[in-house]
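REVIEWER CHECKLIST
Item 1: Sequence provided? yes
Item 2: Single chain? yes
Item 3: Sequence as submitted:
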Amino acid sequence: MPENRILTLLTDFGLSDVYVGAIKGAIAQINPSLAVVDLTHQIPPQNVAAGSFCLMSAAPYFPTGTVHVAVVDPGVGSHRRAIALETAASLFVGPDNGLFTGVLSQNPAIAAVELTNRHYWRTPAPSTTFHGRDIFAPAGAHLASGAPLEELGRPIDTAGLAQLPLPALMATDAGWAGCVQYIDRFGNLITNIPGSCVAGRSWEAIAGNLTIKSGQTYSDAPAGTPIALIGSSNWVEIAVSGGNAQSQLQLNWGEPVRVSLT
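Item 4: Structure as written out by the authors:
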């Protein structure tokens, strides 16, 4: 196994407290030469589904073998398992609460362990409220430094990993029916309808009571006007040119969206 892989961090810790700095310190104590990349620390607090979407969206852009430490963990200290898993593309460390649903929908796990080997923790007596610092970050640092996955704990059945219920996507007579699965900081409403469903076709989106014309870029609509397009992660999304679609359209997570092929 190659040493000094890239290690990424995704959390809902924000940046106003020292939590992110503390987990980076725990990583540096193990291997200060690791390349550590922040995916984001602005996942909405305790929003496991948003963490799953963002991790799924970012992971494919990293080299094979990258270690991703993800911590959105409202059940910290409870009986939920602390795990590390391997896919054909990457390794992932974090809570077994559905946070890896998105990445596993793209690349199934080929091996997984429960992080029971305290040798790879920061301390054998970890905080019950900060497993990111005391268990997940150290385990990720050891993996990124060359430790074999199987040494971090007891093997677990990959079929038993926690999964979030995926948003329903259904074919209709006119096109597709889905929902908003993520809202970015610009207020863009990212649906669970793949861009491949509409690519090369004439189409429009229906959200709430509004029919929204499609385009290629945000600026294809006049300022303040909604537009539907295929976003950078290849999902159909609804935006407002120069504005905030969530605020203007009063739509939120899970709201139904339909695509009509015209």
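Item 5: Key structural point noted by reviewer: The radius of gyration is 20 Å.
Item 6: Recommendation: ____
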